[in-house]
Amino acid sequence: MNTYEAVVIFTEKFNDELAKKAIARYATVFRKFSPTPATVNNMGMKKLAYPIREQTEGWYIIFKFEATPDNIAELERLFRIDDDVLKFIVVKQEDDYEEEFTTIETQQDEQKPVVIDAEDVLLGLATY
Description:
The protein is α+β, with helices and mostly antiparallel strands. It has helices at 16-33, 69-81, 97-110, 118-123; strands at residues 2-10, 39-52, 55-67, 85-92.
Protein backbone atom coordinates (compact mmCIF):
# COMPACT_ATOMS: atom_id res chain seq x y z
CA MET A 1 0.00 0.00 0.00
CA ASN A 2 1.09 3.52 -0.79
CA THR A 3 0.33 6.75 1.02
CA TYR A 4 -1.65 9.30 -0.97
CA GLU A 5 -2.89 12.83 -0.45
CA ALA A 6 -6.06 14.10 -2.15
CA VAL A 7 -6.86 17.80 -2.33
CA VAL A 8 -10.53 18.31 -3.17
CA ILE A 9 -12.21 21.65 -3.89
CA PHE A 10 -15.97 21.61 -3.34
CA THR A 11 -18.50 24.17 -4.60
CA GLU A 12 -19.00 27.48 -2.83
CA LYS A 13 -22.45 26.39 -1.62
CA PHE A 14 -20.70 24.22 0.98
CA ASN A 15 -20.89 25.02 4.67
CA ASP A 16 -19.68 23.21 7.81
CA GLU A 17 -22.62 20.81 7.81
CA LEU A 18 -22.24 19.81 4.15
CA ALA A 19 -18.47 19.49 4.60
CA LYS A 20 -18.95 17.07 7.51
CA LYS A 21 -21.31 14.98 5.37
CA ALA A 22 -18.80 14.91 2.49
CA ILE A 23 -15.97 13.94 4.86
CA ALA A 24 -18.10 11.13 6.30
CA ARG A 25 -19.07 9.96 2.80
CA TYR A 26 -15.47 9.77 1.61
CA ALA A 27 -14.26 8.34 4.93
CA THR A 28 -16.39 5.25 4.25
CA VAL A 29 -14.72 4.97 0.83
CA PHE A 30 -11.26 5.21 2.41
CA ARG A 31 -12.19 2.51 4.97
CA LYS A 32 -12.78 0.12 2.06
CA PHE A 33 -9.25 0.79 0.80
CA SER A 34 -7.21 0.55 3.96
CA PRO A 35 -7.43 -0.62 7.58
CA THR A 36 -5.72 2.58 8.75
CA PRO A 37 -8.02 5.60 9.04
CA ALA A 38 -7.60 8.57 6.71
CA THR A 39 -6.58 11.93 8.13
CA VAL A 40 -8.57 14.99 7.12
CA ASN A 41 -7.71 18.69 7.02
CA ASN A 42 -10.85 20.77 6.52
CA MET A 43 -9.43 24.10 5.36
CA GLY A 44 -12.78 25.79 4.75
CA MET A 45 -13.72 28.38 2.14
CA LYS A 46 -10.87 29.89 0.11
CA LYS A 47 -10.72 32.22 -2.87
CA LEU A 48 -9.86 30.41 -6.12
CA ALA A 49 -6.98 31.59 -8.28
CA TYR A 50 -9.31 31.63 -11.28
CA PRO A 51 -13.05 31.01 -11.75
CA ILE A 52 -14.11 27.39 -12.10
CA ARG A 53 -17.61 26.80 -13.45
CA GLU A 54 -18.33 30.49 -12.79
CA GLN A 55 -17.44 30.15 -9.10
CA THR A 56 -14.79 32.29 -7.42
CA GLU A 57 -14.57 30.45 -4.08
CA GLY A 58 -14.28 26.83 -3.08
CA TRP A 59 -14.30 24.69 0.04
CA TYR A 60 -10.92 22.93 0.41
CA ILE A 61 -10.58 19.53 2.09
CA ILE A 62 -7.34 17.53 2.15
CA PHE A 63 -7.41 13.76 2.73
CA LYS A 64 -4.31 11.69 3.55
CA PHE A 65 -4.78 7.93 3.26
CA GLU A 66 -3.29 4.59 2.23
CA ALA A 67 -4.46 2.73 -0.87
CA THR A 68 -3.40 0.73 -3.90
CA PRO A 69 -3.25 2.21 -7.43
CA ASP A 70 -6.48 0.36 -8.35
CA ASN A 71 -8.26 2.09 -5.47
CA ILE A 72 -7.08 5.49 -6.73
CA ALA A 73 -8.78 4.93 -10.07
CA GLU A 74 -12.06 4.20 -8.27
CA LEU A 75 -11.66 7.23 -5.99
CA GLU A 76 -11.01 9.54 -8.94
CA ARG A 77 -14.11 8.15 -10.65
CA LEU A 78 -16.15 9.01 -7.55
CA PHE A 79 -14.73 12.55 -7.48
CA ARG A 80 -15.59 13.02 -11.18
CA ILE A 81 -19.24 12.02 -10.77
CA ASP A 82 -19.76 14.11 -7.61
CA ASP A 83 -21.50 17.34 -8.69
CA ASP A 84 -20.20 19.18 -5.62
CA VAL A 85 -16.53 18.63 -6.56
CA LEU A 86 -15.05 21.47 -8.61
CA LYS A 87 -11.47 20.17 -8.82
CA PHE A 88 -9.39 17.43 -7.25
CA ILE A 89 -5.90 16.03 -7.37
CA VAL A 90 -4.54 12.81 -5.87
CA VAL A 91 -0.78 12.65 -5.29
CA LYS A 92 1.34 9.71 -4.14
CA GLN A 93 3.57 10.57 -1.19
CA GLU A 94 7.14 9.38 -1.66
CA ASP A 95 8.55 7.14 1.07
CA ASP A 96 12.06 8.58 0.88
CA TYR A 97 10.97 12.23 0.88
CA GLU A 98 11.58 12.72 4.61
CA GLU A 99 15.02 11.12 4.37
CA GLU A 100 16.02 13.49 1.56
CA PHE A 101 14.68 16.43 3.53
CA THR A 102 16.67 15.39 6.60
CA THR A 103 19.81 15.02 4.48
CA ILE A 104 19.41 18.51 3.05
CA GLU A 105 18.94 19.99 6.53
CA THR A 106 22.07 18.19 7.74
CA GLN A 107 24.11 19.59 4.85
CA GLN A 108 22.87 23.09 5.53
CA ASP A 109 23.75 22.81 9.22
CA GLU A 110 27.37 21.97 8.32
CA GLN A 111 27.77 25.16 6.28
CA LYS A 112 28.35 28.35 8.23
CA PRO A 113 26.14 31.23 7.18
CA VAL A 114 27.89 34.20 5.62
CA VAL A 115 26.93 37.45 7.29
CA ILE A 116 27.22 40.53 5.10
CA ASP A 117 27.09 43.89 6.75
CA ALA A 118 25.00 46.52 4.94
CA GLU A 119 27.71 49.11 5.58
CA ASP A 120 30.29 46.93 3.77
CA VAL A 121 27.98 46.74 0.77
CA LEU A 122 27.57 50.52 0.71
CA LEU A 123 31.34 51.03 0.92
CA GLY A 124 31.93 48.51 -1.89
CA LEU A 125 33.79 46.09 0.35
CA ALA A 126 31.23 43.29 -0.14
CA THR A 127 28.48 42.31 -2.54
CA TYR A 128 25.35 40.38 -1.95
